[in-house]
Amino acid sequence: QEQLVESGGGWVQAGGSLRLSCAASGRTFSTYGMGWFRQAPGKERECVATISWSGDWSGGRTYYADSVKGRFTISRDNAKNTVYLQMNSLKPEDTAVYYCAADSSRALLPRTRVRDYDYWGQGTQVTVSS
């Protein structure tokens, strides 16, 4: 069982930046595809960015939702069992609870559906004011 713990959320003004972190507890983190999802009130959970398991310990392929391309960057540090989401140029519409998720399928391409992910963190609130 993988446990995921997010941190780094908070309040920021539009145009500002935040860096989310997600620490995993297990020994097989490097074999997981990792994703960041978000859910705003009254809306479905949506994929923001994902990074696949590379298969060779060097990282992975990434995917970004169109709404965050050029502003958000996902990265992972397998030595620290941690995945990051750097969020720049934040907008009020980025306001949501952000969730970290792990995919144990060892797919080499990023996966973007909620049902593709086996483990989820508790979420961290990001609020962007205008």
Tell me what you see in this structure.
The chain is mostly beta strands and 130 residues long. Helices cover 0% and strands 45% of the residues. The strands form 2 sheets. Strands 2, 4, 5, 6, 9, 10 and 11 form a 7-stranded mixed β-sheet that branches. A 4-stranded antiparallel β-sheet has the order 1-3-8-7, with no helix packed on it. Strand 7 and strand 8 (82-87) form a beta hairpin. The chain is globular. The protein starts with a strand and ends with a strand.
Question: Topology, please?
Answer:
Elements: E1 4-7, E2 10-13, E3 18-24, E4 33-39, E5 46-51, E6 62-64, E7 72-77, E8 82-87, E9 96-103, E10 119-120, E11 124-129
Parallel strand pairs: 2-11
Antiparallel strand pairs: 1-3, 3-8, 4-5, 4-9, 5-6, 7-8, 9-10, 9-11
Binned, the helix content reads under 10%
First-last Cα distance? 40 Å
What share of the residues does DSSP label as strand, in percent?
over 45%
H-E string: EEEEEEEEEEE
Instruction: Using the CA coordinates, give the radius of gyration.
Output: 14 Å
- Backbone structural class: mainly beta
Q: Based on DSSP secondary structure assignment, what is the total number of beta strands?
A: 11
List keywords for this structure.
globular, 4-stranded antiparallel beta sheet, 7-stranded mixed beta sheet, mainly beta, 130 residues
Summarize the structure.
The chain has no helices and eleven strands. It is mainly β.
